[in-house]
Amino acid sequence: MGFGLILPQLLNGLQFGILLFLLAAGLTLVFGIMSFVNLAHGSLYMLGAYFAATAYSLTASFTAAVLAAVGGCVVLGVVIERVAVSRLYSRDHLDHVLATFGMVLFFNEAVRMIWGPQAYFLPVPAALEGTVDLFGITYPAYRFAIIAVGLAVAVGAHYLMHGTRLGMLIRAGAVNPAMVGALGVNIKLLNALLFALGAAMAGLAGVMAAPILSVQAGMGEPVLITTLVVIVIGGIGSVSGAFYAALIVGVADTLGRAFLPTLLRELMSRDLANAAGPAMASMLVYILMAVVLAFRPEGLFPAGRKS
User: Total structural domains in the chain?
Assistant: First the structure.
């Protein structure tokens, strides 16, 4: 198991972690700061991918696809927040779960009705079709671009939350919305902006993932589960925690799936290793979450900690 085999998997894990962060950052804003459980966040990711595929088929421009995905999800997020979510803020989390689970079913059926049951594919931009040489190995340029975009979003999100007045209002509104409202801040508008920002990140994740995954109905639910694991590990309400935890989960999941079956063959029979390896690899991130919850119930990087 040489360096030339491990490094590409590390980069794959980093790229997967960055995609998870794009989803987790938006979801932790809504879940951790607004205290709203939004299971439909994965549907926004799915719709972002569909918006991008449709825009590309009409314009043959990847830039147009990105704009369509992000802009379409922002508009959809505002509509969802105004029509449904804003009526649920005062309700308990069970109502949030039931309402947004209903949205998941609605959006999945709407996608099948509008785009059909077949999968769509978005090509890699021509400028990023090549590979990059790194320490003697070649790695797809587009996957490096995903890492770069995710890092830029992470820096922007950190600056927004800790270096702007809007971020200050968001953090204050999460702690004491009544007091912030009494000071003249429009809490309803602030919540709508926050939900729209989360939707934009979900749409961006969808369009970035579309060239390496098939675009199909229901693609948002599996990644949403992993995203929730990221938020729990990182610390609910912590954007920086979501970033660090996404990288940990992405690398652990990728390396586990790539190498765990091989390692198990050294400890047990090949047939048993082939059967147990993939199952244990798929459980790895959940085992990691259980360990974190056992020793750090608030997460590794909780919102109150400077990081």
Answer: 1
